[in-house]
Structures are given as structure tokens and as C-alpha cells.
Here is the input.
Amino acid sequence: MTDWTWEYEGYDPAEEPLREALCTLGNGYFATRGAAPETGAGPPHYPGTYAAGCYNRLVSTVAGREVENEDMVNLPDWLPLRFRALPPDDGPPGPWWTPDAHPPLEHHQVLDLRAGTLTRRLRLDTPQGPLAVEQCRLVHMGDPHLAALRTTFTAESGPMRLEAESALDGTVVNAGVARYRDLEGRHLTDVRTGEDSADPGTVWLTCRTSASGIGVALAARTRADAPGGAARTDLSGGRAARRLSFALRPGVPVTVEKTVALFTSRDPAIGDPCGAACQRAGTAAGFEDLLASHGRAWRHLWDRAELDVPGKAGRILRLHLFHVLQTLSPHTAELDAGVPARGLHGEAYRGHVFWDELFVLPYLNLHFPEISRALLTYRHRRLPAACRAAREAGRKGAMYPWQSGSDGREETQTLHLNPRSGRWLPDSSCLQRHVGSAVAYNVWRYAQATGDLGFLHTKGAETLLNIARFWADSAEYDPGEERYRIRGVVGPDEYHEAYPDAAAPGLDDNAYTNVTAAWVLARAVELSRTLPAPRKAHLFEDLALEEAELERWEDVSRRLRVPFHDGVISQFEGYGALAELDWEGYRARYGDIRRLDRILEAEGDTVNRYQASKQADVLMLGFLFPPRELAALFARLGYRLDDGLWRRTVDHYLPRTSHGSTLSGLVHGWLLARERRPEAWTHVEEALTGDVADVQGGTTPEGIHLGAMAGTLDLVQRGLTGLEFRDGTLHLDPAPLPQLCEYGFSVRFREFWGIGVRVTAGALDVSLPSTANAPLRVGLHDRTVTVAPGETARLALPR
Ligand code: BGC
Here is the structure.
């Protein structure tokens, strides 16, 4: 194990699903789980391949009802490479080897983050003696359409003959999540196979997604360096396979190289996907050269995302960065794709896009702003759909969907299964209208970090103003309260969807929703007033926006209601009247109560009755806004938010939260670290180990948690340093954790590339590369220093 590798010793079928997710390789265009190439799908193996933004819709019947779901499609499997020993006497071959039928003598797996490769080393017993197999794979970070798998066989003690089959498998379905197995999963149709006439060693497979009609093509070139070997093609059963047989002499390795190209009909600059795939696979360089160009592409990414955190935390953070970059890379910036909550690593949440980008873009803004811009453009392209949704709900402006997929309509399931009770239940989580504020927040923070006014004044403004308009129109004036109220929503805490015994779902005045809506409205007014005159005239004309409407926005932004009870901010109106849960009793009875909602439902109760949250809700406000900004936001709303009120609010919700989302540990860790509370580390640790230790009990095998992964990177970058760019100055206000107090990273801010920040005990170093064009102002508390290009400024930290 090094700082750059994750290694797994031995073969353990029970561990495979988690390893497959954590060893996924991808390049932002597509990704493939780290499954064994010789087994195909079947428990415990699930070799999924997913392309960013490639969705399909199917109708299923569950609980006597027809439901329609859109899924990120599991594409044909390019991994298959199986082998078997051939008997010396030309008799019938034995079965293909699998680790389940014949456990290997040795099995070692290495995920190399620097090189972007997954390597397996095995030794197996065969009737002709031990066979060593070394397998290395990559999903190319330079050419997003390429993947390659090199397998080297070495007979250790005696001669043997082997047959290897390298295939493309079009028989796959979406079946990666047990809870969804009652749902339709056959997304691929019209599977065709063939051999490239220009290169008979290259086979291809094409198909199409059944409803979205996306054409998918893969081509595989397979070559062995075995003199005198034989080869044939088998195109039966929805697979395109190449079979090679060859002799092995003891100690002389034979290498089989499989090079695969994947294209879809959504790709630019191609004639047809099949032609493009055959051409790309047929002309690709050999494995060694691909490895070199792939390594170079990765090096360039790592250079833009330098992160140096010592110890276990550092290793995990690097793994998080690796998976963030495999899901969202500069190649993603060329696509029409959003932030899939579970990466391209599995089928949980069907590859949908939630508010999780709120935890991802702040990190990307400071390293890969072109990716942030593309992800915001995904939202802008779906602005008409969001406006349509608002109209259908009788509202103005844009109502973004809680779950988004291909065309921007609401993709949240209407029924979900509680695996504990076996019941299909109505799902009202789509009432999380706060997702719109997340989109607006990201537009604003992106523009602040990059200075990209070209975006802010065009697509950014269109998006933000329409979201503001939705909020202003959703706010009802309550003359009794002399305040505006937003009713019938669900906040970030998904446990509360309705008032106990209410006939309809939805809650009133969710504090998070109202405060963020107020913030969006205030930013929309500010932006409208600062737009360059001609642009403002055009935009106002296009949106039919008039000063009178801006005045209403201003008014609503100052008078939205925030409920309080017992001296704390209420999560929503009426929260204080809910029952207290017997937390200790439930912990004693069930141990892990993260999914308290499922436990209570299975008992015939409902979590709606209790002061019990799944994740940070009110406290999200302290995550999004530094204390100064949050206090100002409350003051603008006519409320006084002082340290005492905030502390009491934190103390109220902390013991009443079950942390049933990986985002919860992150947000609590961030908040408590900034408040220098000793419990912070427990939450940070939970966020760090969420995926590597599969803390949510079996969810990581279904896909990594991208929001928490990116969020932990941002925790080190902004959370623990207080890093903020304000008034052209880099402000810092470190709150190092005793367990994480020495680390360094670099960020990009506007025209400054490679600003180095290093925190050590008692000091903070900020450096600028000599290539910088101008000096940088750095503020620490009440001091400001100027760092010249090529220099490092050391600032002492108060003890
Ligand atoms: C969380 C949501 C999150 C979603 C996707 C849920 O468990 O409660 O906040 O957006 O997962 O990651």
C-alpha cells in the first residue's frame, strides 16, 4: 500500500460488490466497474458500464400500478476475457475458470490512482500445474472512447495450452440494485454483432436504447503475442467474441491485449457509432503506448488538483478526488450531462442528478471551472423544462426537478420500496423545491470564483432570475404574520414529507428553503441591477420582467418567514410540536438506526411524527454561508441571528439526526470544525470513511456517493481553512482539526493558477508560482499581505 494505491489481498466473494464500486475506472465520458473480466454478471459480480448522460425510460408494474422510471443505462459489457486450460490430448476443454468455482491460490488487486489503472495478479492451479495471470486495465483519460485490458499468462512449471475468449456482451440488463429488481431493466434492443471487414481480428457490437433511441457501438481488437496460436470469431447469443488458443512454455509469458472503443449516437464528430468504434479500436496504439498517454492525461489532472494531506485521511481524500475526476473530467465538459449522485459507478438512484452538485461545484470551481460551467449549462439547457413544470404547477419562473435525467422533467420515483417491510410506499421527495436554490447558488459561486461574467450575464442570469421568479411566486403573503410563507414543500431532511395525519404531503416554511429562497431573490435583484445596460434590456424584454416585479422580489427577500421554537430555529412550522423519539431505546433495539424512516415504517409508525432528521436541514445554512454572511441574511429578513441562537440550534438538531445520508456527516463535520468543537472529528471521519468502509450498510456497492466525496475535498480546501475570495483578496480563517492540522493544496482563482496553501502547526504559507502575472492579496483575520509571483508569505496563526 502506498499513498497512491489501494490494494486488496485475497479473493472474497462477499467483498466483491464493494471492491467493484471502489475500483471503477472511468474518464468522465464513461466508466466501468472493477469487476472480474472472467465471470460476467451474476452474484456477487456486476460488471456495469455507464456513459454520462445516457438514459432510457421503461414502464414497470409494481404493487398493481404502472410506474415509469428513467435509468442510466448499463451498456454492453466490454470486459469479458475468460480462459481455460485445454487438455493436452485434444479432448474436450474443461469449464472456463472462475474464482468462485476454483478459488485462486493467490489474488492481489491494486488500484493505482496516479496511473489510473487496476491491476490484478493471480495464481491458479490447473491440471498442468500453476498458472500466473496478470491483468491490467485502463479507461483512457486522454481519449475518452478507449479502454484496454492486458492479460499476461505464464505457466509456472510445465507446458500447457490455453484458450482465451475476449468478448463484447450485449445481453446485459440493469439489475445492479436489489431494490429495483421488480422493475423493468431491459433497456437495450436491436443487438447486432459483426467482424470488421478491414480487420478480421476486430469484432463489433451495436444496439440501441429502447425508448431514447441512443445508438451504442463497441468494437474490440484482441491480439496475442503467441506464435503459432489459432483464432476464430463467434458471433452468437448477443455477444461478439474472439477465441484464441495458444501454447504456453514454462516461464515464457504470453500476452493478450484487448483494446475497446465505445461510441454513441450522441457523440460529435462521427459518421456512425459503429464505424467510429471500429476505426478507433483498429487504429489504437498498443497497450504500453496507451498506458503512457493515459498516464500523461492523468498527470495533467493531478497537477490541477494538488492535494497533500498526510496519513489515512490523505489516502482517502486522494481516492475521493480520483473518483470525482473519473465521473466529472474535462471530457464531461464536452457533453450534455449533470452530476450523477452516485457517480458512473453503479445504478443507485438510477444515475439521476439531485442537489448534490451543491457539494461538488465549489470544489471544481477552484480547479476545473470549465467542468463547472458545463454542469451549469446542463441545468440551463433544461430551463424550458423547469419553466414548464412551474407553469403546470400554476407558478411562474423555473421549478427544477428534485431528480433530473435526460430532458429535465421530474424523474423522482412515485413509489419506493422499503426493503425492511417489503412495502411499496408513495414517495413525495419531489417536493424538495430547494433544489432550485442549489442551482442558483452554484451559478453565483461559480461566477464569484471565476469572474466569468460572460456566463453570469447570459445563461447564468436566465437561470437565476427564473428561479427567483419561482420563489417570489411561491411565496404567499400572510397578513396575520405580516410575512411571506412558502407552503407544501419538503426540506433537505427527507424524513419529513408531511404533517402527522395530514391528508396531503408537504410542510410549511421549511427554514432552509425560505432562507435560501431569500438569498436567491436578493442575488437576483442585485444581478438585475448590475447587468450591463444592453444585456439588461434584452433579458428584461425576453423574460417580460419589469421593475415592479423586482420590487416584489426585494420585498419577499426581506420578509420570508423563518419559524422558531424554544429559542432555536425550527426546521419547519410546527416542528417543535412533534414528539420526541426514544433515541437510546431505538439504538439499543436496532444498533444502526441511520435509516430510521424504514425502521419506523416497518413498525407501522412514521418518522413524520418525530423530531428526528435524516440529515442536516436547518444546519445546512451554516454549511452554505459563512457566519458573517448568514447573520447578514437573517438581519435582512428582520431576524437577529447571534452566536447563542446558532449554538442552541446546532445543539438541538445534532442529537436528533440519524445521519441516514452520507452528506450528513460531511455537513456536521464542516460546521463543528468551524466552531472548533471536539465532536467534529467523529463526523469528518464518518464522511471520510462513508464509501471506503461502506458506512451506510451496503449502499456503496450500488455506486459511490459523489457529493460526500467532493465535499470532503472541499472540507479540507475551504471548510478547514475558511478560504474565501472577497473583494479581490484571498481570505483565510483556518480552523484546523487536531487530527488534521498539517496539509497543503493548490487552487485556481480567476487569473491566478496554482495558488499554494499550506497549513502547519502555528503558521500558514501562501505561495504564488513565478509564472503568475500579478501579485495576490491575502487576508488573515485583520491582516493583509501581498504575495508576489514566485514568493511565499508565511502568516503566523494565533495560538
Ligand atoms: C439524500 C439526498 C441526496 C440523495 C442523492 C439522499 O439519500 O437524502 O440529500 O440528494 O441521497 O445523493
Observations:
- The CA atoms of residues 340 and 353 lie 5 Å apart.
- The chain has a mean pLDDT of 96.
- The chain has 20 helices and 33 strands.
